[in-house]
């Protein structure tokens, strides 16, 4: 494909992107730089009512350059190859240690594919590891070390896996302790746990079309106490919203623990395929699927053909989520209340993210969430979603809603169940902070259990 063909095929700027007429920072190739990108990001952030809590880091500048500057420079209405190639070069030359890894893990996104093609046509090489090589090798590049230390990538801290530095240095990746070698939960199981995959029909067509979702239906993971017909039934139900790009299985031990304590847990599988570059409609669909999953579980309790018949207490419902899911549960709770007449008794957000373009929905939803209990848990050293994000959402809640923010001392963003060998290649700060990921997860589990025991029992 020639450069001209790539330019023509490149998608138009997203809604909200700068128009050609207003694109003062992109008037000529010499103006395209990360300094100009950071200035454009600063202006956009300051225009938002929640702008004072949005993080402006090199990582967010990468996202802004990728989603706003590149499409604006290389869109079909432009035929200036010089401007386009300058934007590609700035992405590579100035942002290589953090920006390029984003491309390697997002190669299925159409405009990312086109940017990779543009690099070839512009004579700009992408020298960092391809997708089939570990990002761990980035730490061996001298120019990358300062950026990686301040990035969301985690690190393999020896004491967190029970080793000395010398012992760690002597082990290969396949010899490291596994997550299960080091993990233990703090609660004894009351019930054995069953699991199923449910195919759920939406009331309205969705924009989420992926291996787990069609326009009309989506799959969801269901975990439940196996004693569904016991004297302990019916059970409260909790809908769970995972973080971006992570399936519910990335939190399976926490979800199983809640089920073992007598909660039915349902979590959409469709949201795994929503990326940080998704549209506003994608994020609306994200929140909607969490609400629809909750409504499905409640309805299944009265469905004569469902394995959950008689097992679901529709008067005791809650929602929980982590990261982007921790913010989108605010939207989901409002949808559940307004669209399905479900009273959501408890909402538990863990490290809720407030990012430019994705914060509008939970920001507005928080103000509409009446007469419920809301709790946020966030790590003290969370550099992806710092405590200020949770405090913002809590400050917006109506007077009829009880809100609380708990800051976990020494914690980071790492509440997912990531194998230690991948900590340094995963954007969740695993292995940073002053407490281990295993301690973080146990604390979350205890906090969630206590919260839902209080709000749903």
UniProtKB/TrEMBL annotation:
Pfam families: PETase (PF12740). Residues 256-334 form the PET hydrolase/cutinase-like domain. InterPro entries: AB_hydrolase_fold, PET_hydrolase/cutinase-like. It comes from the Eukaryota. This is PET hydrolase/cutinase-like domain-containing protein.
């Amino acid at each position: 494909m020639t450069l001209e063909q790539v330019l023509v095929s490149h998608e138009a700027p997203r809604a909200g992107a700068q128009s050609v007429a207003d694109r003062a920072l992109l008037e000529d190739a010499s103006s395209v730089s990360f300094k100009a990108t950071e200035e454009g990001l600063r202006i956009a952030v300051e225009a938002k009512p929640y702008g004072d809590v949005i993080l402006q880091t090199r990582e967010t500048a990468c996202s802004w350059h990728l989603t706003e500057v590149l499409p604006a420079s290389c869109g079909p209405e432009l035929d200036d190859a010089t401007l386009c190639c300058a934007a590609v070069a700035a992405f590579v030359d100035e942002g290589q240690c953090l920006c390029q890894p984003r491309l390697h893990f997002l190669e299925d996104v159409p405009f990312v594919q086109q940017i990779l093609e543009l690099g070839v046509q512009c004579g700009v090489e992408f020298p960092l590891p391809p997708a089939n090589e570990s990002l761990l090798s980035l730490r061996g590049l001298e120019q990358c070390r300062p950026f990686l230390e301040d990035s969301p990538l985690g690190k393999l801290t020896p004491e967190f896996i029970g080793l000395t530095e010398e012992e760690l240095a002597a082990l290969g990746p396949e010899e490291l302790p596994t997550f299960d070698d080091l993990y233990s939960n703090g609660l004894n199981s009351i019930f054995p746990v069953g699991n199923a995959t449910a195919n759920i029909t939406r009331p309205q067509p969705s924009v989420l079309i992926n291996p787990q979702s069609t326009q009309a239906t989506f799959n969801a993971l269901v975990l439940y106490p196996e004693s569904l017909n016991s004297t302990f039934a019916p059970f409260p139900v909790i809908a769970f919203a995972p973080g971006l790009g992570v399936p519910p299985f990335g939190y399976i031990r926490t979800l199983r623990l809640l089920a073992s304590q007598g909660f039915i847990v349902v979590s959409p599988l469709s949201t795994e395929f929503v990326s940080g570059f998704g549209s506003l409609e994608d994020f609306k669909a994200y929140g909607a699927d969490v609400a629809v999953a909750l409504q499905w579980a409640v309805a299944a309790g009265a469905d004569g053909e469902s394995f959950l018949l008689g097992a679901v207490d529709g008067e005791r419902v809650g929602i929980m989520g982590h990261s982007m899911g921790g913010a989108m549960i605010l939207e989901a709770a409002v949808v559940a209340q307004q669209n399905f007449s479900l009273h959501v008794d408890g909402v538990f957000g863990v490290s809720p993210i407030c990012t430019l373009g994705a914060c509008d929905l939970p920001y507005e939803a928080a103000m509409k969430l009446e007469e419920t209990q809301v709790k946020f848990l966030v790590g003290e050293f969370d550099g992806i979603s710092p405590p200020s994000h949770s405090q913002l959402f809590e400050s917006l809640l109506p007077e009829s809603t009880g809100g609380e923010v708990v800051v976990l001392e020494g914690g980071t963003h790492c509440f997912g169940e990531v194998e230690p060998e991948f900590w340094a290649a995963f954007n969740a700060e695993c292995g940073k902070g002053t407490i281990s990921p295993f301690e973080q997860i146990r604390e979350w589990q205890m906090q969630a259990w206590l919260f839902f025991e209080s709000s749903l029992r």
